[in-house]
Amino acid sequence: MTVAASGFSQSGGTFTGNNGNISINGAFNLSGGTFTSSTATLQITGGYTYSGGTFNHNNGTVAFSTTQTITGNTSFYNIIFLSVGGTYTIAAGTTITSINNVTISGSSSCAINTGIVEIKGDLTLTATQNNSVNGGTATFLFNGTGTQNINSAIVSISVGTNERVCSLPNIEINKTAGALNLNGVININGTSWTTTAGAALVNPGTSTVNINSSVTFSGQNLSLYTIHIYANGQTITLSPASYVLTSVNNVIINGGSYYQVNTGILEILGDLTLINTSTSA
User: Fold this and answer.
1) Are the CB atoms for 21 and 39 separated by under 8 Å?
2) SS3 state at 201
3) pTM above 0.90, yes or no
4) Residues pairing with 189 in the sheet
5) What are the Cα distances from residue 29, in Å, to 72, 91, 112, 242?
6) What is the rounded CA–CA span in Å between residue 103 and residue 26?
7) Exposed, middle or buried: residue 145 (CB in 10 Å: 0-12, 13-18, 19+)?
8) Which residues pair with 218 in a beta bridge?
């Protein structure tokens, strides 16, 4: 089923998507009635607004493509953000929830701004463009009670090639049960990493967390495996002064500009490798 650029609007009644793909080449507006999505993929290109009625995810996937704004708290099953050079703005005060998995995929840039993406299952990162706009100001909240994974397709860091690929925005971990497994190279381009609860549930495996941005780590003390700092003029703050960020493997500082690490403790259980080329103070 394909809906033209005029979009889809429902204020009452019942819509049932069955099991075929639905492409909406405009805005999606639900203000009343019951919308039951497809068990396949609902693709939206012109913005999503939920202000009333009932959205049933039907264990299907919603795929957002091109620049758009997402408004209204909604529970989806799977969410895909297509990296097609756009910016996705989740309206202030809006939380979109993935009951299952979130995927960021595509061959261009992807920035996700403002609101909250609540992830109950896995986050899979397969986008491929190395772009400084990747990331954004939204918060990815990991709070599932089962095992969760952050799966990155990048297996090793290569400055100039993949240090910004599929970068994440702000991160919050608030888990009471189930491991959070980190796999591959996870690029960070947000301003905060907050571990509200569940630090002991974070399993860093042999992953690398690469920090591209000025970011504050706070909440519970956190242990990661390899920490890579791509030095490009950023300040990394560990807050408060008693906060301990631990690398159970190695810390690598690389890049062509300066960096700062302020306030808390960066604990290194392995090696510290300094290959940054900047002479800035």
Assistant:
1) no
2) helix
3) yes
4) none
5) 10, 14, 20, 47
6) 22
7) exposed
8) 194
Placement of tokens 């979130």 in the chain: 102
Is-contact 60 39, C-beta < 8 A? yes
Rounded Cα distance, 29 and 35, in Å: 10
Residue with the two structure tokens 């993935």: 98
202: which 2 tokens?
């974070």
Contact 145, 169 (CB under 8 A): no
State percent of the chain over pLDDT 90. 89
**In this predicted model, what pLDDT tens digit does every residue of 164-215 receive, in sequence order?**
999 999 999 999 999 999 999 999 999 999 999 999 999 999 999 999 999 9
Q: What does the pLDDT read at residue 6?
A: 87
Burial class (CB in 10 A: 0-12, 13-18, 19+), 277: exposed
Cα(210)–Cα(91) distance, rounded to whole angstroms? Answer: 28
Q: Name the amino acid, one letter, at 90.
A: I
Measured distance CA(278)–CA(181) in Å, rounded: 34
Q: Token pair for residue 92?
A: 């202030």
108 neighbors 82 (Cβ within 8 angstroms): no
List, for residues 200-213, the tens digit of each pLDDT value: 999 999 999 999 99
Distance, CA of 189 to CA of 132 (rounded, Å)? 8
CA distance between the termini of the chain: 59
CB atoms within 10 A of CB 167: 28
Is residue 274 predicted with pLDDT exceeding 90?
Answer: yes
Q: And the tokens for 8?
A: 């889809």
Residues 236, 225: Cα–Cα separation, whole Å: 17
In 57-205, DSSP assigns E strands to: 61-64, 68-71, 74-76, 78-83, 86-98, 102-106, 110-119, 123-125, 139-142, 148-152, 170-174, 180-183, 185-188, 192-197, 202-203
Count Cα atoms within 13 angstroms, Cβ side, for 107: 0
